[in-house]
């Protein structure tokens, strides 16, 4: 996927090493005894490294994005890359990321095996989905046990795999940041080794043992962070060869590729029941191969005729050996800057045509054409993995059905498009549906059950809710809508969200001391004190206030809604206050369940709501909105926060709030009675 190289300006100090006996097929790293982990701030460097660990460490979201229809980029992968990159930069290292091209034909067998494994893992999901679609086609309602759905979705996650969409998202970010990138014609491993051979980098960071096969001089692996510092295990070929002369790697340094092929790897399968003991013991297969006068003849006779040998073993062995030694890689001319294809190591004497020697056809087997080599090498506007334009691979784009006011070249938010005809609502993962709702301005509570999520999706479908434009960024979090309100057309600017709260403040009832005393009749004294502290501490953000016209479902009365952000008095949590007033001159404040807050006490008259009303009273005494915002100092924790649009006011979450409130009241009564 992506590989990472490291340039070390000062070589690391000597450490005593021991061999790992080619554990896990050829995944050899040097285990350094005391201080085997080196703190990288001590090493000024430039390096290149592996994308697969970022994908492999992805959680639920990563497993769902690649198995969705359509495919999306996983934000978890990009966040992991960004976090790692920052740690590397903080350590004084300049990284170079190398991107995979299309896998070469020599790996077709391995690709087929991996796909077969994914398909086996997803059998339960495929069967479940087939049943659901058949029921849907017959016009029957879909009713599944929640455990049955979860088991099917767990099966779906086993089909997950890295995608070009993830590549494109990472490339786009790196382009914006001006980060050093290099593309590959085929595998990134060989391109990394080429950069090390040319002296462009001094080390390679990867979790892939192939770099040992390719004679990597310095390989870094097993990366981890401790207290914000970066650590890695270091394999130095020169030190390994010097200290472990009894190892087969040191005894046969020119035959490391043969050791790898005999043990089996991604390029060539091993012979069943022929393991590392048979290969690496004294007088074992590798010793016999090196001693043979004709290597190809020995492989064909001794291994090709083995009862457990795969078909065409000797022929495939030789093809894999040729590719590993002489793989085609990009080379940039230092004089002209032109990019051409060269073998990783010089071809055998008398061989001049790399393409025919490896039995490749670049036009057929590579993802790019010769006129794109320079653009791919510098990873400009092409994704090396597929050879397609960068924007085309970043995921689905807006259509007129999603939002007719957004250009069709804009990328959709995560899971904003779900194919319910291919995967019915009843078979969709809850996380996907939550993001689908979020892209339409509908936020879900963390503890919302699956039936509630499905009901909200159907409601949004029935009401043709459009996907919000990309300029509005909704974040996953607590639900902020109300069942007690619905949108209202008042034929003024408040038919959509508007920031002119000063006009509405002059319209509604004056918030005076007597007015607040009347409203606070049921509020606890401690709540009032916290509200004053919130106001004095700048925990209410007037710059976040937006207003719109709504109607109360309780009495169908016209109302106006003011939404504002409030910083918690005890934690660094930003809550959203929704205050509703009658839409008339001197309009009264309408308490719960019409007005609420997203905090735990949001169904009550919480301190955030009280503080907002006090702030509104100050606004009413000001000459203008601009003057008030200039004079009122807002807490930095609020001004640095990202705005969250809550457009939808129809979500059915009052039941959850009322239940929570009932439980709290019952608990208080129980304690009081005791």
What does this structure look like?
The chain has 674 residues and is α+β, with helices and mostly antiparallel strands. Helix content is 39%, strand content 14%. The chain has 29 helices and 16 strands. The strands form 3 sheets. Strands 1, 2, 3, 4, 5, 6, 7 and 8 form an 8-stranded mixed β-sheet that branches. Strands 11, 12, 13, 14, 15 and 16 form a 6-stranded antiparallel β-sheet that branches. α15 packs across α16 (313-326), α21 (430-438) crosses α22 and α25 (525-536) crosses α26 (607-620). The protein starts with a strand and ends with a helix. Residues 7-46 and 642-652 have low confidence and may be disordered.
Observed structural traits:
single chain; 674 residues; alpha+beta; eight-stranded mixed beta sheet; six-stranded antiparallel beta sheet
Which structural class matches the secondary elements?
A: alpha+beta
Nearest-integer average pLDDT: 79
What's the end-to-end separation, in Å?
63 Å
Number of DSSP E strands: 16
Main sheet properties: 8 strands, mixed
**What is the radius of gyration computed over CA atoms, rounded to a whole number of angstroms?**
32 Å
Into which percentage range does the β-strand content fall? 5-15%
Uncertain runs are: 7-46, 642-652
What is the number of helices? 29
Helix content percent band: 25-40%
Outline type: elongated
């Amino acid at each position: 996927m992506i590989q990472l190289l490291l340039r070390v300006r000062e070589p690391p100090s000597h450490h005593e090493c021991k061999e790992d006996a080619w554990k896990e097929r050829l995944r050899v790293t040097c285990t350094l005894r005391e201080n085997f982990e080196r703190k990288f701030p001590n090493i000024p460097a430039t390096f290149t490294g592996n994308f697969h660990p970022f994908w492999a460490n992805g959680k639920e979201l990563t497993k769902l994005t690649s198995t969705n229809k359509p495919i999306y980029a996983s934000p978890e992968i990009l966040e992991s890359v960004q976090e790692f990159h920052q740690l590397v930069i903080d350590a004084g290292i300049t990284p170079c990321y190398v991107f995979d091209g299309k896998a070469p034909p020599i790996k077709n067998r391995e690709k087929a095996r991996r796909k077969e494994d994914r398909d086996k893992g997803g059998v339960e999901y495929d069967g479940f989905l087939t049943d659901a679609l058949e029921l849907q086609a017959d016009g029957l309602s879909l009713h599944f046990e929640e455990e049955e759905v979860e088991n099917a979705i767990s099966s779906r996650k086993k089909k997950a795999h890295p995608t070009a969409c993830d590549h494109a998202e990472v490339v786009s970010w790196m382009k914006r940041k001006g980060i050093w990138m290099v593309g590959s014609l085929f595998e990134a491993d060989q391109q990394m080794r080429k950069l090390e051979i040319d002296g462009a980098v001094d080390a390679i960071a990867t979790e892939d043992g192939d770099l040992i096969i390719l004679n990597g001089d310095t390989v870094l692996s097993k990366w981890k962070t401790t207290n914000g510092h970066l650590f890695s295990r270091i394999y130095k070929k020169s030190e390994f060869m010097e200290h472990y002369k009894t190892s087969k790697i040191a005894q046969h340094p020119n035959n490391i590729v043969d050791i790898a092929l005999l043990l089996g790897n991604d390029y060539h399968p091993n012979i069943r029941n022929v393991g590392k003991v048979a290969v690496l013991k004294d007088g074992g297969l590798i010793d016999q191969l090196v001693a043979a006068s004709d290597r190809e003849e020995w492989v064909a006779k001794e291994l090709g005729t083995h009862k457990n040998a795969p078909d065409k073993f000797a022929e495939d062995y030789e093809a894999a050996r040729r590719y590993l030694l002489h793989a085609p890689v990009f080379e940039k001319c230092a004089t002209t800057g032109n990019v051409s294809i060269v073998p990783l190591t010089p071809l055998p004497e008398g061989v001049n045509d790399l393409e025919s020697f490896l039995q490749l056809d670049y036009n057929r087997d590579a993802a790019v054409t010769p006129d794109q080599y320079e653009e791919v090498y510098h990873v400009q506007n092409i994704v090396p993995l597929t050879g397609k334009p960068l924007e085309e691979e970043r995921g689905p784009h807006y259509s007129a059905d999603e939002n007719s006011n957004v250009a069709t070249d804009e990328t959709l938010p995560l899971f904003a498009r779900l194919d319910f005809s291919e995967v019915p609502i009843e078979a969709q993962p809850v996380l996907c549906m939550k993001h689908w709702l979020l892209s339409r301005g509908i936020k879900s509570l963390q503890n919302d059950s699956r039936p509630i999520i499905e009901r909200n999706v159907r409601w949004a479908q029935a009401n043709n809710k459009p996907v919000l434009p990309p300029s509005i960024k909704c974040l996953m979090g607590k639900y902020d809508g109300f069942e007690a309100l619905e949108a209202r057309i008042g034929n003024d600017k408040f038919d959509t969200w508007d920031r002119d709260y000063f006009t509405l403040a002059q319209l509604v009832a004056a918030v005076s001391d007597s007015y607040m005393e009347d409203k606070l009749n049921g509020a606890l004294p401690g709540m009032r004190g916290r509200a004053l502290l919130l106001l004095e501490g700048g925990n209410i953000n007037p710059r976040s206030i937006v207003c719109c016209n709504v109607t109360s479902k309780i009495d169908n009365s016209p109302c106006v809604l003011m939404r504002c952000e409030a910083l918690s008095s005890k934690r660094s949590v930003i809550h959203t206050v929704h205050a509703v007033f009658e839409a008339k001159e001197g309009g009264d404040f309408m308490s719960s369940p019409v007005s609420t807050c997203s905090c735990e006490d949001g169904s009550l008259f919480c301190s955030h709501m009280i503080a907002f009303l006090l702030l509104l009273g100050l606004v009413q005494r000001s000459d203008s909105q601009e003057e008030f915002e200039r004079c009122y100092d807002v807490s930095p924790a609020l001004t640095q926060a990202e705005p969250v649009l809550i457009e939808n006011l129809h979500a059915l979450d009052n039941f959850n709030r009322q239940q929570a409130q009932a439980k709290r009241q019952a608990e208080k009564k129980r304690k009081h009675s005791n």
